[in-house]
Amino acid sequence: MGEVLAVLDQPAEAEAAYGKAIDVDAGSGWLKTSRGLARARAGRWKEAIQDFVEGANLAPDDPLSRYWVAHAQIRLGDLAGFRSTCAELIKRFGTTDKPDVAVEVAFTCAIAAGSVNDFEHVLRFAKLASSTDAKNYYYAVTNALTLYRAGRLADATQQARAAELLKKEPISAWFILAMIQQREGKSADANRSFEQADQSLRQASGAKPTNGEDPRLPWMLRLRLELLRLEAAEILKRPDTGKP
């Protein structure tokens, strides 16, 4: 029921449904993380992070659960906590050869600057994933973001452009390009990339279901994109016009 309500963009109802499910299965990390997402969608990040931390503790081998801990820490301005979460990820999954694990570690540690002292670990994770499947959009865009964090702007641009070709509406790639272009002093290009991404995000977030299909972005993806948007808007000195 919680998943259905999430799809219907009813966070309060989804939170209540997940709460009832947790009463039955208190040991489910997935349920705790899911309720955290409902609370995050409602903007209640302090409550959300409690669920995310509990969810991560219940699912220690799931790197995605720790992504949401890191995401909430950034939203709450807890850089020290973010760094600690990234250090834990590197320590726990440092020897992985699984691309689906490596990409989550890389993306998590690239959602904000200053995640780890030695960023080469993060670059290695991103490269491991992207080298296994050049047509995977998430792998490509994660590689672009890590290269941007490393200051390798030309390489980051190349990867972001490659990612553009893999998805009809490559919103995250456009936000990353906007940040790259702004750092390169290409303000006009940066603003165009930002506008393109922002318009697509707003349209996808507010779209109405038709013919039994819901074109709206899932909560998880929307929250990820909103975090990129917030950073890009700050870098470009754009006004915060609120959540898409």
Structural description of this entry:
There is one protein chain. With 244 residues, the chain is an all-alpha fold. 72% of the residues lie in helices and 0% in strands. The chain has helices spanning 2-7, 11-24, 29-41, 45-58, 63-75, 79-93, 99-110, 120-132, 137-149, 153-164, 171-183, 187-206, 219-235. Helix 3 packs antiparallel against helix 4 (45-58), helix 8 runs antiparallel to helix 9 (137-149) and helix 11 (171-183) runs parallel beside helix 13 (219-235). The chain is globular and about 55 Å long. The protein starts with a helix and ends in a 9-residue tail after the last helix. The model is unreliable at 209-214 and 240-244 (pLDDT under 50).
Distance between the termini: 25 Å
Helical proportion, percent range: over 70%
Strand content: under 5%
Indicate the overall shape. globular
SS field, number of helical segments: 13
User: Could you give the count of β-strands?
Assistant: 0
Mean pLDDT: 90
Would you list the SSEs in sequence order as H and E? HHHHHHHHHHHHH
Task: Output the radius of gyration.
Answer: 18 Å
Largest sheet, strands/sense/barrel: none
Tags for this model:
about 240 residues; mainly alpha; 13 helices; globular; disordered C terminus
In short:
This protein has 244 residues and is mostly helical. The chain contains 13 helices and no strands.
SSE layout and pairing:
Elements: H1 2-7, H2 11-24, H3 29-41, H4 45-58, H5 63-75, H6 79-93, H7 99-110, H8 120-132, H9 137-149, H10 153-164, H11 171-183, H12 187-206, H13 219-235
